[in-house]
TrEMBL record:
Domain FecR protein: 129-227
Pfam family, one: FecR_C
Protein name from the UniProt record: Ferric-dicitrate binding protein FerR, regulates iron transport through sigma-19
Domain Protein FecR C-terminal: 273-338
Native organism taxonomy: Bacteria, Pseudomonadati, Bacteroidota, Cytophagia, Cytophagales
Provenance organism: Catalinimonas alkaloidigena
PANTHER family the UniProt entry points to: PERIPLASMIC SIGNAL SENSOR AND SIGMA FACTOR ACTIVATOR FECR-RELATED, PROTEIN FECR
Stored InterPro entries: FecR, FecR_C, Ferrdict_sens_TM
Protein keywords: Membrane, Transmembrane, Transmembrane helix
Superkingdom of origin organism: Bacteria
Transmembrane segments: 104-122
Amino acid sequence: MDFDHYTREDFIADESFQNWVWQAQPHNVAFWDAWVAAHPEKQATVEAARQWILGLQLRETMPSEAEIDDSLTALRARLAAAPLSTTPMLPTPRPFWRQHALKIAASLLLLLGALAVVWFYGAQWQRETLATRFGETRKILLPDRSVVVLNANSRLSYASDWSDEGNREVWLEGEAYFTVKQEPRPDGFRKFVVHTSDLDVEVIGTQFNVTNRRARTQVVLQEGKVRLDLKTEQTAPVEMRPGDLVEYSLVSKQLRQRRVEPELYTSWKDDRLIVKDKSIREIASLIEETYGLSVVIQDSALARLEIRGTFSLADLDQLTRELAIAAEIRITREGDRLVFQP
């Protein structure tokens, strides 16, 4: 299907796109994450459709008198055009309910449709959703005093009626750094759970980074203790210790765990990009996800080139200047795309 020519209305009507908005089906989420990332030129249209779905409002469920009269007129016209029966029929009085059966049926059908919409979307209306634009980060203070730094092009939601009982739960699309406050209880500590499209991150009190983009979820633990529960595999929970990176791919169904320097993955929250032997291709992908631009690398050897350094994320122009100097390349901007040249 040619999604490149989709209008806002096309996206709204597409069931797989709706599932992506509501994070309902992992394979739909994976597909649309990748498609949206690969088509930054459609960002405005996609966002307009997403906001329309999230802000869905029920219209008046009862038809107007004029609409009912129009339907009755059309029905009478069709009956008049039908062949007449030759069998004589005796006139019989019609009860009141029969005279108004069409009106009653139309109203009931519309009412049932409205109830179905409420049932399907009701849970979503009960969430608070906070989002960031391309190139923007945002610090969020949750009701339990835990702190979240939300990276660019990301969304975080939690229950509107956040309770002091039960688990603390949030839902993440994109990337965020969490500093979770410990809440002791008589039976232990109150859990904090971060839900992504393919796994749950369960913690007590800790600092960690979660990235959920392009059909891939990555968790880096800076301090404390974390347990990961995969949603799509019958796999035992994964226990993490500080300095661990765990990455799960929804496409390959592979789970990888290794030791890393957490600062390389969390420095973005301080408007810095720290890289050690990271390729230009990997940096280009980060720019696309953070700033919503497409990046063209005009040489395959350049794409594999690895660099080191610390760069500013506060300003895109400054970032590209610093990268160009470090890699000894030319970076030019052409509208909504960046071109990397040897």
